[in-house]
Write a structure and sequence with these properties.
The protein is of the alpha+beta class. The protein folds into 2 domains: 172 residues, Thiol Ester Dehydrase, Chain A (Roll), CATH 3.10.129; 179 residues, Hotdog Thioesterase (Thiol Ester Dehydrase, Chain A, Roll), CATH 3.10.129.10. Helices cover 15% and strands 37% of the residues. The chain contains 5 helices and 16 strands. Strands 1-4-5-6-8-9-10-7-13-16-15-14-12-11 form a 14-stranded antiparallel sheet. It has a two-stranded antiparallel sheet with strand order 2-3. A hairpin with a 2-residue loop joins strand 9 and strand 10. The longest helix is centred in the N-terminal third of the chain and has 17 residues.
Length: 366
């Protein structure tokens, strides 16, 4: 840990004195934010402000194939991932939740400010002020909390938001998930096996049929993706939507099947027995882009997300988007839903504007 001095001006009768209390800055290990690859770890240090109040230093990557736009500006999925990682970090480091416990996120909201993140100057270093509330304990162990966050760069607010999550012990999680923990696919392990066999993971297998192969298969079957440019991406490996039709059906423009490349080094960097919540959030961003295409992409300024259930690998999950305009043809509100086995498992409401799609070879994911 590092100890620094924080300067506070305090007035006496005729002079000003400097009080320099020691502030301890704690380091961040990748296990604390549930990341395997160090390049995907966003927080760099954290310190205590007061009871249940913290400041976390965050470094957005300068060059990252998934989180950074080709034109140098950061994409919106970084805000959600920053909120996620900051919440995990504080649960483990500040509230002593043991590693190996499971986190169940219920909701996430944030608004993006018109400021440095949307300007010509790239934002790389942020301070995230976090207030933790509604702390609930099971005995002496933290079982749930809400985190409210303000993201700032050079003193200017980049975004405000937060989320609520429950914390589940390994034993309780085994009871909750049952046999799915044993039969569920392990995408990170599958991706590693594909890499060892010579597959890059960048191109999905071509299949007939709509569903993922039952979990545990050596090579998971995925439906073919939509073209990357229609969802604001440039790489096939990043595309999470597939057309919701067979080769003989007419393709609905507002409905897709969730799909993934399990060799993706960021989205599936560690084993999981269900689709991670951040995969669903990224799929929502892509669906919003597809909903206003062609020629436009959705640049959202506010997001309201609810995670309503686990999304399994073994059954198709259907993503639907409904875009409406509000006062201006370019002001678009997109409502995204995800259903699996006729059950609503995820919703997202994205408010923003429809902006011209970039030229070929660049990305402007909103």
């Amino acid at each position: 840990m590092t100890t620094v001095r924080s300067r506070t001006r305090q007035k006496s009768r005729h002079i000003e004195t400097d009080i320099l209390p020691a502030i301890t800055i704690y380091p961040v290990h990748r296990e604390l934010v549930h990341r395997s690859n160090p390049v995907d770890v966003l927080p760099t240090g954290w310190r205590v402000l007061a009871k249940d109040r913290f400041v976390i230093s965050v470094a957005w990557p300068v060059d990252h194939p998934f989180y950074t736009r080709v034109n140098g500006k950061h994409s919106a999925n970084l805000i959600g991932e920053t909120i996620r990682q900051c919440g995990l970090l504080l649960a483990h480091a500040a509230y002593d939740v043991p590693l190996g416990h499971h986190f169940v996120m219920w909701d996430m909201t944030y608004t993006r400010e018109a400021g440095p993140a949307d300007g010509d100057r790239a934002v790389h270093h942020l301070e995230v002020e976090v207030t933790c509330s509604d702390l609930r304990f099971r005995g002496t162990r933290l079982g749930a909390m809400t985190c409210d966050m303000t993201l700032r760069a050079d003193g200017e607010t980049v975004a405000q938001g937060g989320g609520r999550f429950d914390i589940v012990s390994p034993a309780a999680y085994r009871r909750l998930r049952g046999t799915r923990m044993e039969s569920g696919a392990r995408p990170a392990e599958i991706g590693a096996a594909q890499a060892r066999s010579g597959g890059s993971g960048s191109e999905p297998p071509s299949v007939s049929g709509a569903g993922l192969e039952p979990p545990g298969a050596s090579e998971p079957v995925q439906p073919d993706p939509v073209p990357p440019e229609t969802v604001g991406r440039t790489r096939v490996i990043d595309v999470l939507l597939a057309p919701a039709h067979t080769r003989t059906d007419a393709a609905p423009t507002d409905r897709w099947q969730l799909r993934a490349d399990f060799g993706h080094p960021t989205l599936f960097d560690h084993p999981n027995d269900h689709f991670p919540g951040m995969v669903l959030l990224e799929a929502a961003f892509q669906a919003a882009n597809a909903a206003v295409a062609p020629g436009l992409l959705h640049h959202h300024t506010a997001a309201k997300v609810a995670f309503l259930g686990y999304v399994e690998y073994s059954t198709p999950c259907w993503i639907e988007a409904r875009a409406t305009t509000a006062g201006s043809p370019l002001t678009a509100v997109v409502e995204i839903t995800a259903r699996q086995n006729d059950r609503l498992v995820f919703t997202a409401l994205l408010e923003g504007t429809a902006v011209p799609a970039p030229l070929e070879g660049t990305s402007a994911q909103g």
